[in-house]
Design goal:
mainly alpha, 5 helices, Arc Repressor Mutant, subunit A, globular
């Protein structure tokens, strides 16, 4: 049986876990990094990141559904920007951690096995 305080902590951390999962795709991180530099249209993201329109649109929809980006119509296009400027700070902090740990995360021997892989714990509440 799980202690009530442990269960409470798990519930409290669930939104943070969902946030990190929403950023768990390299294409989404590329989009967030680009939008941290300023607003952009889908065509700007396509050409600047070398991604297909369908890929950019799919990931923007995910980020919008998670409340991380917003869009405003501009002429016949939409301009996307970060909904939370703190997201740029979080990305910068992650880059600082990665720089400090070197390749430790990339070469982690258990990455992709059990907890730690891209599909790890997806939808798992245990």
């Amino acid at each position: 049986m799980i202690a009530p305080e442990v269960e409470m902590e798990r519930v409290e951390l669930a939104p943070a876990a969902a946030l990190f999962r929403s950023l768990g795709d390299p294409a989404r991180l590329m989009i967030v990094r680009r939008l941290a530099a300023g607003p952009a249209r889908v065509t700007d993201l396509m050409s600047g990141l070398g991604l297909a329109q369908s890929t950019v649109s799919k990931h923007l929809a995910c980020l919008r559904d998670c409340g991380l980006v917003v869009s405003e119509p501009e002429g016949r296009a939409s301009v996307f920007r970060l909904a939370q400027p703190a997201l740029a700070d979080m990305l910068s902090a992650a880059e600082t951690v990665l720089a400090a740990t070197g390749d430790a995360v990339v070469v982690c021997p258990v990455w992709g096995q059990g907890c730690g892989g891209p599909d790890c714990c997806a939808g798992d509440e245990s």
